[in-house]
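Q: What would this chain look like folded?
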Amino acid sequence: MTHSSHPSAARSDSATGTLLVIVSAITFSTAGLFTKGVEAGAWEVIFWRGLAAAAFTSFWIVIRRTGRQQFGSMSPSGWAVGVVGALGTAAFIPAFKFTSIANVSLIYAISPLIAAMLAWIFIGERAQARTIAGCLGALAGVAIIVSGSLGEISLYGDMLALWMTFAMASIMVIYRKYPETPGAGPQVLQSLLLLPVAGLLGAPLAVAPVEILILIAFGLLFAIASVTLAEGAKRIASGQTALLSSLETPLAPLLAFFVFAEIPDSATWAGGALVLAAVLASIRPRQV
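A: My prediction, written as structure tokens:
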């Protein structure tokens, strides 16, 4: 094998990584459609989606023969990811029931910036000036989005979305602090932790069979999105992963418009534009 073949292999690996992250972003953007597209309540959605996601992710672990790595050596940080992830999911699904898909997606878009600020505060990871500026701009955008929900039931949904965003940002910080933390194992754990809670607070067995099938598909897509993101992130730079993952933010409201004719209000448009500008500016590649 000649040395000249190495750049070609690297380009192929990068292209594969790029495609996987794009697939992940597109798949994640459908979460609101599945949640709002069924009559089942939030806890019922959490139960069936979590059960399916845990099953499919466990199957992936088995065929990859990484069970010992993912489950056998579950560290305290892995358990922390599972618990925090469960708390985030418990807010994520109900958020779609109370507010618009656009609001949830745009609020969630600030999670990488919140993670950078939390990492700066709690683990001493210095944040670049543009990251700090981006975080302040994104928070201002979220404040504008939330202001449009004042006095409405959607304010509750916005607060749930914000809670979920901080939970996901905390998980990012845990992985930065403890990079050896397994990825798939804690995802299975967070789903399993919620099953008894969802079973007690909801009525999963009362869900119509056709909706159960829809929610199983939701769980499968969530598992696919998680796996493709993890595999793609190994092949491309973290900045590129963040940039490609941000495709989820405009895609989700666009899908909501086409499927549910859900049109964001003026506060969401204004705040969303500020959020997107802040996120994209903070993760743009450096000039060399």
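The chain has one domain: 17-283.
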